[in-house]
Amino acid sequence: MRRAIFPGSFDPLTLGHYDIIKRGITLFDELIIAIGINAEKKYMFSLEERTQFIKEAFKDEPKIKVLTYEGLTVDFCKKIGADFILRGLRNPADFEFEKAIAHTNRKLSEIETVFLLTSSGKSYISSSIVRDVIRNGGDYTGLVPETVVVK
Fold first, then answer.
1. Which of 23, 39, 113, 139 could form a disulfide with 102 if both were Cys (CB 3.0 to 4.6 A apart)?
2. What is the pLDDT of residues 82-91, one digit of tens each?
C-alpha cells in the first residue's frame, strides 16, 4: 500500500491545500492529512476546528484520513507506516525551503518526499494571507473550501 502524509498546520485549510490533496489522492492508496501540533505557535483556529474543516471537506473521500501529531514528521511517518510525504510548491521560495526539509528527512529516514506544483490559479493562496484577510474583515470565501467559511 502506498501511504502518504500531507503535513501542515492548516490554519486554515485553503483552496491551495485542497488542490494538492485532491491531486495527491490519485497518486496514493491512502493519504493522511497530518495536522502538526506546535505549542509555540498561535493559531487562529483551534485544533478541533481545523480537524473539522478538513474532515468535512473530504467526507466523501475514503482514501483520506485526518490525524494529528507532535514532533518530527519522519517519526510520525514511521509510527503510522507512511513511506511518502506529500508537499505542495507555490513558488521558487517554497521549493528552496521544502528541498532543505526533504534532504534532511532523507538523511534521517527512508521517507521520500513527493512535490506537486499548486495549480496556477491557486498558487498565490497561503494560510497566512487568508488569516490576514479574515482579521481585516475581507471576503475570504474565494480562498478556502466551503467547509472553512464561518457563518
1. 113
2. 999 999 999 8
